[in-house]
Design brief:
This protein is mostly helical. Helices cover about 80% and strands about 0% of the residues.
Length: about 170
């Protein structure tokens, strides 16, 4: 009985730590996106007064949408990894779970699109068309850099596991 209680406590602590780490990661990413935008988007003082709080709120709402998506999936017993690394998990889902996953993905995309449309309307009242274009270019460049960074990290992990994967032509001794 003590062993069972101890195991349950360990699992609970592990889940709590994982959730706390996820919140730290999303908060860190939010701050990085703001800092990247602050460095690259050259706004006047007047434009900045209204933009920065609206942009921060937009990012917070976007994070909430993703968190709700993950929570909804977890309620149905669906726990996904990073995009592109879920083939085995998805293969094991029931038809009911697959339908729920697809519905939730669609709902997330719809909610994000609504959030972006709302934010775009605010942008039009705060920034010039040139600054709005710059904003979207900077944001797209930042997102691409994140994808590239994740790909490099994945390659490094793969190389650490299998050194021949980095240079397949190199023979082992």
């Amino acid at each position: 009985m003590k062993r069972l209680f101890f195991t349950i406590c360990l699992v609970a602590v592990g889940l709590f730590i994982a959730q706390a780490q996820n919140k730290v990661d999303t908060e860190k990413m939010r701050k990085e996106r703001i800092e990247n935008m602050r460095i690259n988007l050259k706004l006047t003082t007047q434009e900045g007064k209204t933009f920065w709080s609206a942009y921060d709120q937009f990012l917070r709402n976007e994070i909430k949408l993703h968190e709700t998506y993950k929570q909804n999936l977890a309620k149905q017993g669906i726990r996904l990894n990073e995009p592109g690394k879920n083939k085995e998990i998805i293969a094991k889902l029931s038809d009911k779970q697959l339908t729920y996953l697809q519905d939730q993905k669609f709902e997330l995309r719809k909610n994000i699109l609504n959030l972006e449309a709302s934010f775009y309307k605010k942008l039009k009242s705060m920034l010039t068309p040139r600054h709005i274009q710059d904003f979207y270019n900077i944001d797209e460049k930042y997102k691409r850099s994140l994808v590239s960074k994740k790909q490099v990290e994945a390659e490094k992990k793969k190389a650490a596991v299998d050194p021949t994967s980095v240079n397949p032509g190199k023979k082992k001794r």
